[in-house]
Design a protein that fits this description.
By secondary structure, the protein is of the alpha/beta class.
Length: 801
């Protein structure tokens, strides 16, 4: 009874919210080894399936399901389940599996229609059935097993159920009353998003999963459609809230909305009508029909409270654009039943259930958030070339990537690569990229990484080996760590500098090595000043902790310590101090040019000095260098202009920014776009888009490629080249980001610490041996993966019994 998952279009029941009885604490609940009396609140697929599984595992159990609506009440029309989910169902309950198999319609293609052009990608593999039919199958199975079904009946209050039953399963949807009753224990957080959508149906079957874009006078609208029966399809129409209001749809009832959506997407529908999903409620207070909804993401700190456990949408939601809440709920049911069977008692079972499901759900919610944001910002992608737009849409959640899309549909992916400019047999990451007079042989950047290994700011043998090894490893651009422009601008005593002739000579040794031993690799310098985050210990001795002795004074935009009571209060820079710092940057830039660096990056991120001017959380000045965003930009732009003035015209300059502070009241993505716009207007050749590290109480949303949406947004709003960074861990991620038009270059840090030859190994793993990834002559013999064991053993031919 193992479980996997993804999600396909299906929201949870749209129930009224309300407060249940007062909360109790977990230690007040009965402790049972095997729950024999089970109450299930909510008769959706998750609740019904959990009831059926638990009854099947132990026929002696007394299980009752309460559903306040009629047995065929539902929201949405079709349910899509993956082969992985079906495999779990097959092993757990072959009867349900066979019934589902008889009902499924299957298809492989996705059609993307944009500006009159239909692009088709195949090989995806979908299976769907009607949600009402799914409920019928589960009702039949529950009745056959002896589960008590109490439909059109409100469940008793949560506290009564928990006292009367061994186990209470709260499967009562996104507006769970059970969750509300124990909110102080579950810790729910509900986020409402920026689009409105409506669930509709058409009485014909699309022949593919269809995405269609309508550019109306009011704004962009999109249709998501897929078949769920031989003569029926789910149709979801979605748009930004401001578009919905401008179109007057906020003033339409369901019938009017349905008619207008059918007119807007008449081509997709072949002129046929749409229908809504209004339902009766069996004499109970009516549940809302499938009218316009703003999607809500539900997250809970805990999923169990004593003997009450959350399941499905009550515990978590994930945006319909990546899959089904039904699918998640069914897999929750599988996991819960298995854990109850496997664990010695109920507390252990509920802990194991949450431990198993939480990371899987979190991964799905991250993918769903990426997909949701993509559709919220759909308008920014409309001018992309058609195939790139389609590829971007298909890979929006980061679950579908360049590599697996190439396996599913090599012809489609090959056409996207050709449009991108990939020579035959060349992965996107090994296509060249030009910045001013510098042409990078590939799109891989060794991200700046502080090594804390300099002595008096002088880079030594460690830096030569560290940077030289990564240059030999094939990256198109190797960046230094943040090189400090003054002694007081260092973060730690081990930080490198470029404020003395000795330091410049040491850096020249590095650039000469890279240019002579790894021709075609560019080496860039990142110039910065620590600001209020300076005078601290080496990272491994206590990151951001002040020195035990030998501290130097620090300066910043405002007299605000990085951490009150821990780090020293910085001196607010006056006009003379600003001029002095500006000149320090200029002097360092002159030395960098003389050292032979190919590119210069101005560090305006991560809470260091220039970043401290940009963020409203760290800049509280009342003069012309604070206040509005224009004021906060003033000094960083002055430094940029001064550095650009002495940096050779043919060599590019980039700027690293923190596109969000991950803290309330800090830099927003809209601010980041304006910051990038300002630097680009002054001559920045690319924006290196990082996030955070500005304030100590930040709350980043970590995950794979978690910072790349900010680079994506800046690139596609402004049309400026961007460097994406942030948990990009695989060459497949790099290819996907580039081909989708979300980034121009990809900077990787930890992968290059793990493997200095990461880029060359990526080329070998993709079978590429072209000019974008030349092996150094002394290393060429190692350009193939070495064998790991004998491969010449004779294969068995006969089996003799």
């Amino acid at each position: 009874m193992r479980r996997t998952h993804e999600q396909d279009p299906e929201p949870g029941p749209d129930q009224d919210t309300g407060q249940g009885p007062g909360s109790w604490q977990p230690d007040e609940s009965p402790q049972v080894s095997r729950p024999l009396r089970v109450a299930v609140v909510g008769g959706g697929p998750g609740g019904l399936y959990a009831a059926a599984l638990l009854k099947r595992l132990d026929p002696a159990r007394e299980i009752t399901v309460w559903e306040r609506g009629a047995p065929d009440n539902t929201f949405g029309f079709g349910v899509v389940l993956s082969d992985e989910t079906l495999g779990g169902i097959q092993h757990a309950d072959p009867v349900v599996y066979r019934a589902l198999q008889e009902e499924f319609v299957r298809w492989d293609d996705i059609d993307i229609v944009h500006r009159g052009l239909t692009l088709t990608s195949g090989g995806h593999g979908f299976a769907a059935l009607g949600r009402r039919r799914l409920l019928e199958i589960l009702h039949e199975r529950c009745r056959s097993l002896g589960v008590g079904l109490r439909v059109r009946e409100e469940a008793p209050p949560a506290a009564e159920l928990s006292a009367a039953y061994d186990l209470v399963i709260a499967a009562d949807g996104v507006h769970s009353l059970t969750r509300a009753a124990y909110a102080d224990v579950f810790g729910p957080r509900v986020t409402t998003h920026r689009c409105r959508y409506i669930w509709l149906a058409a009485d014909f079957a699309f022949d593919a999963f269809r995405f269609e874009i309508a550019e109306t006078e009011h704004g962009v609208m999109q249709l998501h459609g897929y078949p769920y029966a031989k003569n029926a399809s789910t149709v979801i129409v979605e748009m930004r809230e401001e578009v919905w209001r401008a179109a007057g749809l906020d003033r339409c009832d369901e019938a009017e909305s349905t008619e207008r959506c059918a007119r807007i997407f008449a081509d997709a529908l072949g002129g046929r009508a749409l229908r809504g999903n209004a339902v009766s409620s069996g004499g109970l207070p009516p549940r809302p029909p499938s009218s316009w909804i703003a999607f809500r993401t539900v997250v809970n700190d805990r999923w169990s409270c004593g003997n009450t456990v959350l399941l499905g949408d009550a515990a978590h939601t994930a945006h319909f654009s990546i899959g089904s809440g039904t699918k998640l709920a069914v897999e929750d049911a599988l996991a819960l039943a298995a854990c109850i069977e496997e664990q010695p008692d109920l507390p252990a079972a509920l802990a194991a259930y949450e431990s198993e499901r939480r990371p899987v759900v979190a991964s799905t919610q991250r993918a769903a958030a990426a997909s949701l944001r993509w559709f919220e910002e759909l308008a920014t992608y409309l001018d992309q070339p058609p195939r790139q737009f389609a590829f971007n849409l298909l890979t929006r959640s980061r679950r579908v990537t360049h590599d697996n899309l190439r396996l599913r549909d090599p012809a489609f992916t090959g056409a996207v690569e050709e449009d991108f400019g990939c020579p035959s047999g060349t992965p996107p990451m090994f296509t060249p990229f030009r910045l001013r007079g510098l042409t990078l042989r590939n799109r891989v950047v060794v991200s700046p990484m502080d090594m804390y290994s300099a002595v008096d700011g002088v880079p030594g043998d460690f830096h030569l080996v560290h940077l030289g090894a990564r240059a030999l490893g094939g990256a198109g651009l190797v960046m230094t760590e943040m090189v400090c422009v003054s002694p007081e601008g260092r973060i730690t005593p081990g930080c490198a500098g470029l404020y003395t002739a000795e330091q410049a000579a040491a850096w020249r040794r590095v650039t000469d090595f890279v240019h002579e031993q790894s021709p075609g690799t560019a080496v860039g310098v990142q110039l910065g000043h620590s600001g209020r985050k300076g005078s601290t210990r080496l990272m491994w001795d206590g990151i951001d902790q002040p020195l035990d002795d030998g501290n130097w004074p620090v300066a910043a935009a405002s007299a605000l310590p990085y951490r009150a009571g821990v780090n020293q209060v910085p001196r607010e820079l006056d006009v003379d101090g600003l001029a002095r710092v500006r000149e320090q940057f200029v002097s360092a830039a002159r030395r960098a040019a003389d050292c032979g660096f190919d590119l210069l990056e101005l560090h305006c991120a991560h809470g260091y000095l220039l970043s401290g001017f940009l963020s409203p959380l760290t800049n509280q000045r009342t003069d012309g260098y604070g206040g509005s965003l224009a004021g906060r930009l003033r000094f960083p732009l002055e430094v940029f202009d001064a550095v650009r003035g002495v940096w050779p015209d043919d060599r590019p300059m980039t700027v690293r920014i923190s596109a969000t502070d991950w803290a309330q009241g800090g830099t927003t993505v809209e601010d980041a776009i304006e910051i990038a716009r300002a630097f680009a207007a002054r001559g920045a050749d690319a924006i290196d888009v990082s996030t955070g590290q500005v304030v100590a109480d930040e709350a980043p949303e970590y995950g794979r490629s978690y910072q790349t949406p900010y680079a994506d947004r800046i690139r596609n709003v402004l049309g400026v080249p961007v460097i994406a960074v942030g948990a990009i861990s695989s060459w497949d991620d790099v290819n996907s980001l580039l081909l989708a038009g979300r980034a121009d270059l990809c900077a990787l840090a930890r992968p290059h610490l793990y493997d200095p030859h990461w880029t060359l190994h990526a080329a070998a793993e993709q079978g590429y041996a072209g000019p974008g990834a030349r092996w150094p002559l002394p290393y060429r013999a190692g350009s193939r993966t070495p064998p790991t064991g004998r491969t010449d053993a004779p294969k068995p031919r006969l089996s003799l019994g």
